[in-house]
Amino acid sequence: MEKLRSLILDCGVAARAQAGESESGDRHLVKRFRNGALVAAVDGLGHGADAARAACMAAATLERYADESVIPLLQRCHAELAGTRGAVMSLAKFNWRDRTVTCLGVGNVEGFLLHSGAGSGPEQEALVLRGGVVGHQLPPLRASVFPVSAGDTLIFATDGIRSGFTEGLILSDPASKIATRILALYTKGTDDALVLVARCVERAA
After folding, report:
1. Architecture of the CATH domain 7-202
2. Is the pTM for the entire model greater than 0.85?
3. How many C-beta atoms surround the C-beta of residue 24 within 10 A?
């Protein structure tokens, strides 16, 4: 029997601060492990320096405790962001041994898992978002687990990106090209904007 080849992530990010601001309140994290990876998109509430501070604190906390599962990770962020403006965020933890991704979102950072079509199941799955603000009001948390295979693509977008951004994508494009295209075509222009694209690809032999 042919051995199942392992997966890795091809990631791309594109971001833009709101006009007139020197820094963005949107941040991202990609932390790779031997048998998986953690990816996250964080949106500090509002924009400007206070939003950037909250988002940076959240990203630093995620990186520091990246080996934990997504629910304890988000709870840690909630504790760390107390006293700040707060943030909304979506997390995804890939497990290459199980070929799964575990997702969790609080707030309005949209997430979609686009399947390559090689396996069964729906072509596109939306991340279920829980209402709340990390650092202020945390809802009951429940993560979603999805199977992944080579070619599957996860996309996170903060609320500076208009909805419908998954339409007409060419999933064979590099992740960085997909992120850049979404930012160029779907930026609202009234808020910070960030797009994070993570595609599962087979590891070279």
Report:
1. 4-Layer Sandwich (3.60)
2. yes
3. 23
